[in-house]
Each structure stands twice: as C-alpha cells, then as structure tokens.
C-alpha cells in the first residue's frame, strides 16, 4: 500500500487529502513507476474545483510526473526496473507515491535532466515545443507575440523563440513579471494593464504586425491578437485563462489572409513516434539551458492543498513540485 492524494469531491484546496492508495500491478502494455516528483498545473486546479470534470471521483489527480520504473507488464519492451522516466497523461494519477501508466506514454529521462526538472517542465516544455515547431514553425527573423510571457509556458516559449532567432514581444501583468520576461530574453515587454498592446505591437513593428501571436489568455486578448497579425500571420490560441473565446466570423481572417490554430499537446502526443521526437527535442533543450524554469517550491505530497493555494495566488514566477 502506498499514499496518494485522493479527490472525493470538487471544491477548494482543502478537499485534497492524503490517503492510503494501491495503484495495482501493471497489466499488459503498462508500467508501474515509483513517483519521485509530480508537477502541479492549473489543469489540476480546474479538476479540483470542478471546472473540468474529467477525473472520475474518487480519483487521484495529477497529469505530469517523473520517477523510476518498479515493474513492467506483459509485452512491454525496452523498459526495466530502475529506468528513469517522465510522463504526461490524461489518465491522471500523478499525485501519488506510485502510479501505473501505459508504456506508450513513458518518456526516457537522460542523465542531464533531474526528476524535479522533468516534473516542472515536461508538460509546459512539450507545449512550448509544439508551439514553436508545429503550430507555427518559428524561424529566425520572424516576430512573435507571446501573451503571459512570465507564465509557466510563457517563460519557456520566450526562451525557445529567442534561441530560434525570433524577435519576441511579451505581454505581462506587472512590473515584476516584466523583469521575469526580460530575463528570459524578451526583446520588448508590454504591460497590458497599463498599455494598449495592439498599439504597442504596431509601434514596435513599424505597423507591420507579428508573424505569430501565441495566446493562452483567450477571451480578453483574442480580438487584439487578431489585430496584431501581419499579412499571412497566424494566431495560435492554446488556452483561455480569462475565459472562453466568442465564436469567430471566419471572414475576419480574409483581409490579411491570416490563419487560426487551436492546438492540444495531447493530440500531438497521441502518436508514440511524435511524442518520442518531441521529448527528445525538449530534453535536449533542457540540457542546453534553453528550456528552463525556476522551481519556486518543492512540497511533500501531503501539502498538495498548499501547492494549489500557491498556484492560485498567481504570485509565483516559477513552478511548484510535489515530492512524494
């Protein structure tokens, strides 16, 4: 028997309680892993609060973790007890001392990536990789607008875009976050609560606009992001922290021959060959220092509620990781 955070009802952080939990033995095509570090994401907050009802209750939350293989099920090749791995899953189970996952989701960790780095960076880093390589293959000399440039994905996205040779305009909500975005390499930082970001983007680009706008904010920034696009530019909407985007009249895209993408990292990870390639890119970027984030707090599993309070405070400029 191991311990896990078992969610029995939706509510505030206080509903996250540690209990005895047995994830079971791995079946065919599965791996049982000892969890050494679990990422804490806003997805987890939405599951806990009831905004997302994708975890059957009672259930163990957590979609991102790192650990060590304990046992493998029938038909699993290439993995053995003691191997280090990370995973991202829509099947949950990360807030635990042990988890059983499909072997197809296992990502082999290189020696140069720590368990804590993997737990803090895998989901966010794979998302950033998807954005700069797939949703819009970013090239040197292009101009990218990154909303929430001091956020978890935003920091990695700014660093990766700069490493690819792009010019980056980041929007942030406070002077403190502006310093974070600048430290990540942003060429220009816009305080969107104090400035009209559309006007600033047009000023910075000499009226041309940006080649790509990466927008995780949604409702509050979507229309402005469209207005920031250069001819043939693309708006990549990958989140809705301010609320859902209103229906779009497709003809709005005609004037600049623009395009719109709404990618999901899980759709890209559904094919094992693509997931392996994405993970290889990410882990190489982590080892090279391109993809990195500050881990603000490492908390024991029993303090999952405090981890959620910290995340919801929106005062952090880095990641929170649980250590089972």
Broad CATH class of the largest domain: Alpha Beta
Beta-strand share of residues: 25-35%
Count all strands and give the number: 15
The gross shape turns out to be globular
Superfamily (CATH H level) name of the largest domain: Medium-chain alcohol dehydrogenases, catalytic domain
Helix tally equals 9
Quickly describe the structure.
It is built from 9 helices and 15 strands.
Please describe what this structure looks like:
With 324 residues, this protein is an alpha/beta fold. It folds into two domains: 2-122 and 272-323, Quinone Oxidoreductase, Chain A, domain 1 (Alpha-Beta Complex), CATH 3.90.180.10; 140-262, 3-Layer(aba) Sandwich (Rossmann fold). Helix content is 29%, strand content 26%. It contains nine helices and 15 strands. The strands form three sheets. Strands 3, 4, 5, 6, 7, 14 and 15 form a seven-stranded mixed β-sheet that branches. It has a six-stranded parallel β-sheet with strand order 10-9-8-11-12-13, sandwiched between helices. It has a two-stranded antiparallel ribbon with strand order 1-2. Helix 6 links the parallel strand 11 and strand 12. Helix 2 packs across helix 3 and helix 2 (115-135) crosses helix 8 (272-287). The longest helix has 21 residues, at 115-135. The protein is globular, with a radius of gyration of 20 Å. The relative contact order is 0.15. This is NADPH2:quinone reductase. Residues 11-322 form the Enoyl reductase (ER) domain. It holds the Pfam family ADH_N. GO terms for molecular function: mRNA 3'-UTR AU-rich region binding; NADPH binding; quinone reductase (NADPH) activity. Keywords: NADP, Oxidoreductase.
